[in-house]
Amino acid sequence: MWTQEELDAIDQEDSLFISIPNAEGKMHKPTYIWGVSSNGSFYARGASGVTSKWYQAALVAKKAHIVIGSVEKDVILEFPTDIKTKINVDKAFRQKYNSYLDLMTSEAVSAATVKMIPIN
Question: Short name of one Pfam family for this protein (predicted)?
């Protein structure tokens, strides 16, 4: 579970970097993506949607290492597809990234929503 302090830090920071292990377990170079908290969980999207290299690697590895502000964690990745999550995450993106609203809440980008669950 994320602590409220971690979620607050996540919501204050724009720069999220994700590193995903390859088949041999070696971490890829960190990739800049976008992250928000919603209902006590942490979600990320990449501006290139489901065709991006990091997202395709995430589908295979289902785990990653992230850094966002003062928060650095290993995480398990889930790929929610339900409409309720999409609506809630869109709302969080609207609140946090107002100037990038059209891009980050587009159908192509929201299809690449990833839920990040911390490994404690």
Answer: DUF2255
| Matching residue, tokens 């999550």 | 85
Residue 96 lies in domain:
4-118
CA 49 vs CA 56, 75, 104: distances in Å: 10, 20, 9
Which H or E run contains 5?
Answer: helix 4-12
The DSSP H or E segment spanning 6 is helix 4-12
| pLDDT tens, residue by residue, 58-81 | 999 999 999 998 999 999 999 999
CATH number at residue 20: 2.30.110.10
Nearest-angstrom CA–CA distance, 18 and 15: 10
CB of 91 within 8 A of CB of 43?
A: no
Domain count, the chain: 1
